[in-house]
Amino acid sequence: MSIGLFGFGKTGSVVANEIINDKDCELKWVMRESSNNIGEFASRLLGFDHKEGKIYNVYEVDFNEFYKDNYVDVIIDFSASCAVNEYKEAVKYGSKIVSAISNYEEENINQLKQLSLQTAVLYSPNITIGINFLMEASKLLQKIAPNADIEIIEEHFRGKKDVSGTALRIADALGLDKEQHVNSIRVGGIIGKHEVVFGLPNQTIRIVHESHNRAAFGQGAIYAAKWIMGKEKGSYSMEQALSLIMSGSKDNELEPTVLL
Ligand SMILES: NC(=O)C1=CN([C@@H]2O[C@H](COP(=O)(O)OP(=O)(O)OC[C@H]3O[C@@H](n4cnc5c(N)ncnc54)[C@H](OP(=O)(O)O)[C@@H]3O)[C@@H](O)[C@H]2O)C=CC1
Ligand SMILES: O=C(O)C1=N[C@H](C(=O)O)C[C@H](O)C1
């Protein structure tokens, strides 16, 4: 499976490493915003001997021409909300999209939705396999304890400016007011921790997920990319993919769901 990666930052560079290490994947190219390492290979920057994942600068690429000669099966996006404008041409050649952008601008999420009318698009603000089990477990517990008080605590590295997109998605899934029930902590170099606290009269139940290494995001993105191969056009999520596994449904029964 050939992959084009948007973003080579804190997360994208680690995701690139996971893709290169995966025997079923080939990293064809990497897109980034700055002029750092343009023309070099991500593999070499990551310490591999071979050449894989040539790095391009988004402002130096003519996207009307680029995808003609640089087709990939799946584009994985760990860059920025606006990057959706840079791969809309790719879907004309059949590329599918896995977006991990956690907080989209309204305009860009609508553009991503438009792309799902032409190709298969999987969007997940937290693409770790573990966080999606946390969401399923939280929804199940809420059914068992509908009157519980619920608070969401998200912890990230000090430099993260936006509220966790994962926490906002969990709040949505549980029908909670995002302003009231999402509590953010920014300390040190925390990669990503999400805790759902259920307060009951005589006990407290905590469901916690913590990413210790950004490789977790890469593994989840590769899982999503392999899963979305062969899917028809439409919008999909990690919850869908994993809940199908948990429920034992066959993938080919899958219908796209409007999730964006
Ligand atoms: N869904 C999930 O599970 C996860 C999602 N994320 C999300 O991934 C995104 C990136 O996070 P993080 O790696 O920490 O951020 P960084 O700022 O470290 O990296 C951003 C990367 O995107 C590149 N970039 C910025 N704008 C564009 C553009 N228009 N086109 C192409 N590349 C661009 C930057 O290029 P350059 O390096 O040249 O400046 C950089 O390489 C965020 O939205 C974050 O929330 C992160 C972790 C997990
Ligand atoms: O910015 C990050 O790093 C992360 N962002 C995602 C989010 O906002 O939920 C997912 C993960 O927690 C790391």
From TrEMBL:
Residues 1-126 form the Dihydrodipicolinate reductase N-terminal domain. It catalyses: (S)-2,3,4,5-tetrahydrodipicolinate + NADP(+) + H2O = (2S,4S)-4-hydroxy-2,3,4,5-tetrahydrodipicolinate + NADPH + H(+); (S)-2,3,4,5-tetrahydrodipicolinate + NAD(+) + H2O = (2S,4S)-4-hydroxy-2,3,4,5-tetrahydrodipicolinate + NADH + H(+). Pathway: Amino-acid biosynthesis; L-lysine biosynthesis via DAP pathway; (S)-tetrahydrodipicolinate from L-aspartate: step 4/4. The keyword Oxidoreductase applies. It comes from the Bacteria. Pfam families: DapB_C, DapB_N. One of its GO terms (biological process) is lysine biosynthetic process via diaminopimelate. InterPro entries: DapB_C, DapB_N, DHDPR_bac, NAD(P)-bd_dom_sf. Residues 130-242 form the Dihydrodipicolinate reductase C-terminal domain. Keywords: Amino-acid biosynthesis, Diaminopimelate biosynthesis, Lysine biosynthesis, NAD, NADP, Oxidoreductase. Its EC number is 1.17.1.8. GO terms for cellular component: cytosol. GO terms for molecular function: 4-hydroxy-tetrahydrodipicolinate reductase. Belongs to the DapB family. This is 4-hydroxy-tetrahydrodipicolinate reductase. It comes from Lysinibacillus telephonicus.
